[in-house]
Design a protein that fits this description.
By secondary structure, the protein is an alpha/beta fold. It has a single domain (about 5-250), classed as Spore Coat Polysaccharide Biosynthesis Protein SpsA, Chain A (Alpha-Beta Complex). It has helices at about 20-35, 55-60, 80-85, 105-115, 140-145, 155-160, 165-170, 175-185, 205-210, 210-215, 220-225, 235-250; strands spanning about 5-15, 40-50, 65-70, 95, 100-105, 120-130, 150-155, 190-200. Helix 1 packs across helix 4 and helix 8 (about 175-185) runs parallel beside helix 12. The radius of gyration is 18 Å and the shape is globular. The N and C termini lie far apart (about 45 Å).
C-alpha cells in the first residue's frame, strides 16, 4: 500500500466572486486530480471563505460538491479569511488561491513533490502567468510576492503568525508581500521555474493598478519618476518591524 502524505488544504477567500468562483474551483479540483493521477496520495481539502459577499457567491457555493464553505459575519478581507481557514483545517501543506485566479493542473503536484523530496524546504514557489503584457524585469518580484503560486508547510505559516490583518495592509493590498517576506527570511525555500498558475487582472485589483508599470522595463519606468501613489503608512511600518523582529528571534539572531 502506498503511504499517504500529510493532508493539504487549498484555501480560497471569496468576495463577490460569482462570475469567477466556479472556474477557480474547477481549476483546484483539476490540479488535485492530476496530483492523484501522478501517484501522490494525500488527503485534500478545498476551503472557501465567503467574506460576506453581496452577490450570489454564497448561493453558488452551496451547489459545489467537495468544498467546505465558511462564512464571515462581516467583510474582513483576504488576510483574515485565509488565516481563519488555516485555523479550521488540519492540512499540513497550505495552498492559497484567490477566487478570480486559477491553478494549472500541474500546480499541486509540482509543489508537493518538491516539498516531500526535501524536508529542509519550508516552502516552494513557481512562476505565475498574468493575463496582461508584462516586461520580464517585473516577473521575479511578482513571483516572490504573489499569493497563489506557492505551497508552505503549515508550521511555518503558524510561526510567522499568518497574514497581517491590520487595516492598512488590507487597504493597500500588501498583506501578501509582508507574508512572503517573512517566510523568505525564516525558512529555506526554492523556486521552481515552471508556470503553474494564472493571475487575472480585474478592474481595480492590485494587478490591474500596476498595468502601466508592468508594461515598461524597470529602468525605463524608474527613469520616468512616476509616483506610484503608494507609501508605507506608520501602521504598516510598525507591523513590519515587529514581524521582522519576531522572525529574527525565531532565527536566534536577537533575544
Amino acid at each position: 500500500m502506498t503511504p499517504r502524505t500529510p493532508g493539504a488544504a487549498i484555501i480560497i477567500p471569496a468576495y463577490n466572486a460569482a462570475k469567477t468562483i466556479v472556474r477557480t474551483l474547477n481549476s483546484a479540483r483539476a490540479s488535485i486530480a492530476h496530483c492523484r493521477a501522478q501517484g501522490l496520495a494525500a488527503d485534500f481539502e478545498i476551503v472557501v471563505v465567503d467574506d460576506c459577499s453581496a452577490d450570489v457567491t454564497a448561493a453558488i457555493l452551496k451547489g459545489q460538491q467537495g468544498v467546505r464553505v465558511l462564512a464571515n459575519d462581516i467583510n474582513r478581507g483576504a488576510a483574515f479569511s485565509r488565516n481563519r481557514a488555516v485555523r479550521e483545517t488540519a492540512g499540513q501543506f497550505l495552498f492559497f488561491l484567490d477566487a478570480d485566479d486559477v491553478f494549472y493542473p500541474n500546480h499541486v503536484h509540482t509543489c508537493l513533490q518538491a516539498l516531500l523530496a526535501e524536508d529542509s524546504l519550508g516552502y516552494v514557489f513557481t512562476r505565475v502567468k498574468v493575463d496582461m503584457p508584462m516586461h520580464e524585469d517585473w516577473r521575479p518580484s511578482l513571483d516572490e510576492s504573489c499569493p497563489i503560486n506557492f505551497c508552505v508547510r503549515r508550521v511555518w505559516h503558524d510561526m510567522i503568525q499568518g497574514f497581517p490583518e491590520e487595516p492598512d495592509f488590507r487597504k493597500h493590498g500588501t498583506e501578501d508581500t509582508l507574508y512572503r517576506a517573512c517566510l523568505r527570511r525564516l525558512v529555506n525555500h526554492r523556486k521552481i521555474d515552471t508556470e503553474t498558475c494564472e493571475q487575472f487582472a480585474s478592474p481595480g485589483n492590485a494587478l490591474d493598478r500596476q498595468r502601466e508599470k508592468f508594461a515598461h522595463a524597470k529602468k525605463d519606468w524608474q527613469s520616468k519618476g512616476i509616483d506610484d501613489g503608494f507609501r508605507m503608512t506608520p501602521e504598516m511600518e510598525r507591523v513590519a518591524i515587529a514581524r521582522f523582529e519576531h522572525v529574527a528571534r525565531l532565527r536566534g539572531e536577537i533575544k
